[in-house]
Amino acid sequence: MNGNALDALRRRLPDLRLKTEPADLEFYGRDWTRRWTPAPLAIALPGSVEEVQGIMRWASEFGVAIVPSGGRTGLSGGAVAAHGELVVSTERLNKVLSFDRIDRSLTVEAGITLEAAQNAAREQGLIYPVDFAARGSCAIGGTIATNAGGIRVLRYGNTRNWIAGLKLVTPQGELLDLNRGLIKNSSGYDLRQLVIGAEGTLGIVVEATLQLTDPAPRSNVMLLALPSFEVLMDVFAVLRSALSLSAFEFFTDIALKHVLAHGAQAPFAETYPYYVVSEFDCADDAQEAAVLAAFEQLAEQGQVLDGVISSSDAQAAALWRLREGITESLAQYTPYKNDVAVRISAMPAFLAEAQSLLGEAYPDFEVVWFGHIGDGNLHINVLKPGDMAQADFVAACEQVTKLLAKVLQEHGGSISAEHGIGLVKKPYLDCTRSLAEIELMRQIRRAVDPAGLMNPGKVFD
């Protein structure tokens, strides 16, 4: 059946690039989770929107499931193809289509990398402000699928704030032009926003109009060493009141150890238990004075033990590497990841409870904490002992995730802040969303994709 379907696809779209070699099936059939054995039917690499439409019409006719694929840098199993699906990669749809100086918008194909879109905006004297460490490999379509956040959410918000319009190919092969770059549009449901964060379950994004903005004022980066977990939010409160923050990122001594082993330079002669990287406006003498005053206040109160402020772009990049290099430095351990969020006001109580829970649950595991603490997003990475079977490790971690999900529910939080639900977080969705919400989402999905062919098994069954 599947062989006949592929033959029909080749006849229908003779110029479509298809990959069926085992190495390609493995490469395109998985994301960064590495927890599922990839087993896609084939890999399609369309070079045009028309080819994407043709693929979707073929899939609808032959009943073949589709897994959309961007850079596959996801961490929740959202791009996994393990059950004979056709992977549709947007990597060839990677062009900048237009720039509108009046609207200050950039229209791009969905397969363009975040970094390439940022560079294109910069060439026009503007910025696309969504940013995170995987910028060089993640695709814009993937950032839309997960409503990606990143390191500057404090100032700019998530991806959803910066998508002025998008084009979606539906499961039936129709091309929808959603919002068309309008600033004001009260003509019914905003389907654009429904697609953002839908993890490819409602269709394939093929094009996006990105809203651009002015470059931020000149900024500096400061790394602070903290004596304890408990002072973290107090430090945030002081810096947020004194400075114009664009980022406030946290990590532990264990995270720093791994980044240093991966090639980064040690920031201090001593090692401290906790660290914060902050970025803030520093365009004039008054702002520079405010930074020093805030640092002195925190040091006098014993909430900061040491610190360094960047004096050049190179030093700023080196300080940022200590935070941005964490995920890459941990990749070799295939960590079990939790990506959670609570309201900033609930963060102190949640942190205390979560730290106690994880300390008791993982006494023999190395746990790496870091995250975008200034927007309520915390990443918890548990590293597998070398002598432990992967299945046993995952089973042990999932038992604790159930407990963590309950703590999040008590604090009104989310089991997934920015990585999506995918396969990994699906069992815990009801700790974040009510049963009524989940059922309504199911109904929306069935209305758009009644045959259930779009990224099946992701988010919910």
From TrEMBL:
Q: Which residues cross the membrane?
A: none
Catalyses: (R)-2-hydroxyglutarate + A = 2-oxoglutarate + AH2
Cofactor(s) it depends on: FAD
Q: Does the keyword Glycoprotein apply?
A: no
| One GO-annotated biological process of the protein | respiratory electron transport chain
Q: Which SUPFAM superfamilies match?
A: FAD-binding/transporter-associated domain-like, FAD-linked oxidases, C-terminal domain
Family matches, as PANTHER family: D-2-HYDROXYGLUTARATE DEHYDROGENASE, MITOCHONDRIAL
Output this protein's name.
Answer: D-2-hydroxyglutarate dehydrogenase
PROSITE patterns found in the cross-reference section:
FAD_PCMH (PS51387)
Subunit description? Homodimer.
Going by the UniProt record, its keywords in alphabetical order are:
FAD, Flavoprotein, Metal-binding, Oxidoreductase, Zinc
Q: Under which EC number(s) is this enzyme classified?
A: 1.1.99.39
Q: Where is the FAD-binding PCMH-type domain?
A: 36-215
